[in-house]
């Protein structure tokens, strides 16, 4: 499964990129606004930090003609950019048009398998199924994810299912179980994937034993 970082903060991208495990970055208008930097400037810097990665940048218009102009402008900035499009009627029309032009798209704000079906038929590269926001209203966001994976595979669509609105590591575990292609998450959640109390206890024991023995990986100078 691919791992994407969900952020508009260049410093967060730089930190995660150092681990060598992220495959892309998703942004949205809220995240870009929080960064306090220019849209194009931020997106291009993220592209530099994640070479070859898929970098999602979203249109902000809601009428087709303006959305198309914005999409073509955004796509022209860098070959790694994926145009993010909300699942609304003009948005699905836009995805169809962009697919015909060979422009990759990420359809966002998808909550049901019926919405995902429309995105897949339009030729979306990524389908962003939101889980946390569904859980917030006492639903089960992962049900739609699993159904979308089944739908994509059953009908041979080329779209990849992207689990979005990830709130905690268990969402990532559930995404794996649902056979999702991608999970995108904030830096804090990605950092939590490293954590387990037994890892901390085990490492402490290893290092305590090593230090008590007075051992060193590097031999003292002059020793053959």
Report the end-to-end length measured between terminal Cα atoms: 47 Å
Helical residues, percent: 40-55%
Net shape: globular
Question: How many DSSP-defined strands?
Answer: 8
Give the strand content: 15-25%
Which CATH architecture would you pick? Alpha-Beta Barrel
The biggest beta sheet reads: 8 strands, parallel, barrel
Q: What value does the average pLDDT take? A: 96
CATH 4th-level superfamily: Aldolase class I
- The figure for the number of domains is 1
Q: Provide the CATH topology.
A: TIM Barrel
Q: Quickly name the level 1 CATH class.
A: Alpha Beta
- The Rg value, from CA coordinates, equals 21 Å
- Largest beta sheet: what is the strand line-up? 1-2-3-4-5-6-7-8
Order of helices and strands: EHEHHEHEHEHEHHEHEHH
Topology (SSEs and partners):
Elements: E1 2-6, H1 10-17, E2 24-26, H2 29-35, H3 39-49, E3 54-58, H4 64-76, E4 81-86, H5 89-100, E5 105-110, H6 113-122, E6 126-130, H7 132-136, H8 141-155, E7 160-164, H9 169-177, E8 182-185, H10 187-192, H11 197-213
Parallel strand pairs: 1-2, 1-8, 2-3, 3-4, 4-5, 5-6, 6-7, 7-8
Helix pairs in contact: 1-3, 4-5, 5-6, 6-8
């Amino acid at each position: 499964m691919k791992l994407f970082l969900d952020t508009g903060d260049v410093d967060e991208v730089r930190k995660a990129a150092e681990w060598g495990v992220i495959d892309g970055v998703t942004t949205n208008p809220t995240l870009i606004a929080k960064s306090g930097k220019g849209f194009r400037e931020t997106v291009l810097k993220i592209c530099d930090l994640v070479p070859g990665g898929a970098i999602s940048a979203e249109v902000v218009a809601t009428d087709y003609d303006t959305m198309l102009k914005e999409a073509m402008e955004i796509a022209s900035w860098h070959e790694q950019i994926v145009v993010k499009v909300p699942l609304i009627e003009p948005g699905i029309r836009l995805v169809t048009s962009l697919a015909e032009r060979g422009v990759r798209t990420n359809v966002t704000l998808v909550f049901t398998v019926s919405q995902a079906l429309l995105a897949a038929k339009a030729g979306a590269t990524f389908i962003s199924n939101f889980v946390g926001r569904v859980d917030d209203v006492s639903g089960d966001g992962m049900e739609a994810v699993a159904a979308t994976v089944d739908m994509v595979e059953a009908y041979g669509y080329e779209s990849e299912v992207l689990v979005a609105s990830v709130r905690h590591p268990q969402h990532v575990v559930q995404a794996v179980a649902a056979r999702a292609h991608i999970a995108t998450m904030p830096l804090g959640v990605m950092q939590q994937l490293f954590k387990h109390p037994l890892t901390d206890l085990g490492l402490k024991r290893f290092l305590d034993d090593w230090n008590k023995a007075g051992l060193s990986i590097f031999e003292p100078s002059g020793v053959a």
